[in-house]
Amino acid sequence: MKKIQKIHLYEQVSEELQNYIQEKELKEGDKLPSVERLTEMFGVGRSSLREALRYLEANEVVRIENGKGVFVRDMDTFRFSGKIKIEVERNSLLATLDVRRALEGKAIELAAKRITPKQIKEIEACLNEYRRLKEKGESTSKIDFTFHQLVNKAAANPILESVLESFSALYNKFFDRPLGNTGLFDATYPFHFTMFEAIAAHDVRAALTEFNKLMDSLEEIIKNYEI
What we know:
Layout: H1 9-23, H2 35-42, H3 46-58, E1 62-65, E2 69-72, H4 75-114, H5 117-136, H6 141-154, H7 158-166, H8 168-171, H9 189-200, H10 204-224
Antiparallel strand pairs: 1-2
Organism: Cohnella rhizosphaerae
Protein name: FadR family transcriptional regulator
InterPro entries: GntR_C, TF_FadR/GntR_C, Tscrpt_reg_HTH_GntR, WH-like_DNA-bd_sf, WH_DNA-bd_sf
C-alpha cells in the first residue's frame, strides 16, 4: 500500500501566499489583503491562514504589524529564500531522476518486448492528444504523465508497475510545475514519439536509446536551469 505523505495545510497556504506575492509583483512594504479577504481567496480558515503567516514571518518573507496588517519584507531576502527553495528542489529532481531512469528504463525494455496491438492504439491516441494540446499551447503535463503510465502498463509486470505507482509522489514533480515552471520540459516532447515508435516496433535497443535521450535532456535542463 502506498504511504500517504502528510502535508500541513499551513505549508500549502504559505506556498500560495508566496505565489501571490510573486504574481502581483509586490515590493517591500506593500500590504497584503486583509485576513478576511485572504481566507476567502484561498478557501481556508483563519487559524490555518494565521499559522501560514507566522511561518512566513519567521522566514522573513512578510512582517505582521498588529492593528495595521501584513506587509511584504525585504525582497532581497525573499528572492534569496526562493533561490534556496529552488536549489533544494533541483537536487531533489536530480536524485529522483536517477531512480526514475533505472525503474522506468526497465519498464521501457519490457514494454518493447510485450506491448500488445491494443496498447499500441491506446498510446497512439494519447500521443495524438499530446500533439493537439501542444499545438494549441495548452498544458501537456497530465497527458505526458498518462503517456508514461501507459508505457509502464505495457511492460506487463504488475510488481514493477506497483513500484512505479508508489514512486509517483516524487515522480509527479516532473509533471507539476517543476522548479516553478509549467513548460520547463517542453524540449522532451519529440522523444515521446520516437520512443513510442521503437516500442511499437518491438525494438528494445532503439526504445532504450530514445528513453535515455529523454532522460539526458531532463538532466541537462534541470542542471542548467537559471535560478
